[in-house]
Amino acid sequence: MIKTMFTRTIHRVSIIQSHHSSISRREMSMGTESVVARLKSSGLLQTKGLIGGKWTDAYDGRTIQVNNPATGDLIASVACMGEKETKDAISSAYDAFGHWSKLTAADRSSRLRNWYNLLIQHKEELGQLITLEQGKPLKEAIGEVGYGASFIEFFAEEAKRVYGDIIPSTLTDRRLFVLKQPVGVVGAITPWNFPLAMITRKVGPALACGCTVVIKPSEFTPLTALAAAELALQSGIPPGVLNVVMGDAPKIGNSLLESPQVRKITFTGSTAVGKKLMAGAAETVKKVSLELGGNAPCIVFDDADLEVALKGSLATKFRNSGQTCVCANRILVQEGIYEKFTSAFSNAVQNLKVGNGFSEGVVQGPLINEAAVQKVDSFVQDAISKGAKVLVGGKRHSLGLTFYEPTIIGDVKNEMLIARQEVFGPVAPVIRFKTEEEAIQIANDTNAGLAAYIFTNGIKRSWRVSEALEYGIVGVNEGLVSTEVAPFGGYKQSGLGREGSKYGLDEYLEIKYVCMGNMS
Ligand code: ADP
After folding, report:
1. 273 Cα: distance to centroid of ligand 1 (angstroms)
2. For position 33, what pLDDT does the model report?
3. EC number(s) (predicted)?
4. How far is the CA of 440 from the centre of ligand 1 (A)?
5. How does pLDDT run across 31-82, given as a tens digit for each residue?
6. Relative to the CA of 252, which ligand 1 atom is closest?
7. Can you state the percent helix, strand and coil of the chain, rounding each to 5?
8. C-beta neighbour count of 280 within 10 angstroms
9. 289 to each of 52, 147, 334, how far by Cα in Å?
10. Nearest to 112 by CA among 74, 168, 71, 159
């Protein structure tokens, strides 16, 4: 799945850094309490759901725990909601739609702009919250806040540009118009790897158009969503326009799917859940956007600039510890540059500093939970058992718990599990190839089609290969391509629709044709 990078705030070089972590378990555990205390005093540590502008407990009082993936520490217990709360959130969003959709675009725009300003003003605290519940290094987390907020800024601007059309009529006494209208109540289901940005790139365009939203964040990372919702309330976005429920994912999901009042489902997450949601949306024929899993190839040709290819491959593979849907999942390297590239890549990867995201200099945080570590390790073991060779890492990190060593495995074949499915962890499988045709064939031999990367100095080759790749996003000599101004989305089973850019608005709009007759 997911999800992205920060063209504005990115620290491209910082990922290529030094020294293995030597921090102790005690040091690792320090921080949770003090960060929680700071966040509480700033009013950003909300633990209830938001329904109709009111912070609301689960109706049966149930809670779920949110833990720090780096230490296992409890951060907070949040409301564990289900069907009843979701129904009420939908009703609130439905009631608020009448008012919100009728505000002027300029009015909605200025409230979104206020929200953007508040997100930026609280960049540090939101970044800390992201590191606390998701684990990514603080600098990267603050980068996500800038990136996430940029969608609110961009769509605050776009709110004023939802133009319709006047169509030259085929009859002299008729006038033909196209109006664009908000689709209505939107159900937004989001994952844990970008706890803020995956929300803002859905909610930004939805609210800009005049839609209202029920958000269901991941149960692993609800706190960032709740803090962002608190800031939305402060920014003058009226009660009911933005609601947040979390808890029992299937129950919340089914309530959103079954409701005829919900006119759109937007989802980022696994392909399996995306397919379920798409099927479930059929009953009420909702509009659907899906950002699902990727299996990104990163192709390094013999004629690539080695430094550029190295930097790009490191950035696209190892950001967020490999937990993004646009992370390179397969590094394809042409035979003429294979030895040079893998040796330089290995040098860089064994120097990536692993540890708690709050520790200075750490560029690789924990994975989200132990199940993720087990999955990563099982993919690595499967590849080894089939003849792949570990070049760096290849096992759980000595920090234990949720940590995995940044890993490179060579001599990988495209048939191996690790090249068929998303590893979603800090493991770079390297596949050797001979010709451009072979690279394209290997790259396209997958059901996914989200992002692909190529490294070459050949201008003709860059066009040829970009056009041949069955992917929604292609980075040429660049490993970090996501930005709010460009369309993000996939071909094939990587999803439907686009997020960000002017195309991102269309996902939340209905087109209405108005024919005025007998005008002569
Ligand atoms: P990931 O593997 O990244 O966690 P998931 O698809 O499991 O991806 O989760 C993404 C989001 O989908 C999360 O908010 C999760 O709670 C939600 N989710 C999981 N199962 C369902 C479901 N059956 N219906 C609705 N939402 C679901």
Report:
1. 6
2. 86
3. 1.2.1.24
4. 32
5. 688 889 989 998 999 999 999 999 999 999 999 999 999 999 999 999 999 9
6. 25
7. 40, 20, 40
8. 17
9. 25, 21, 36
10. 159
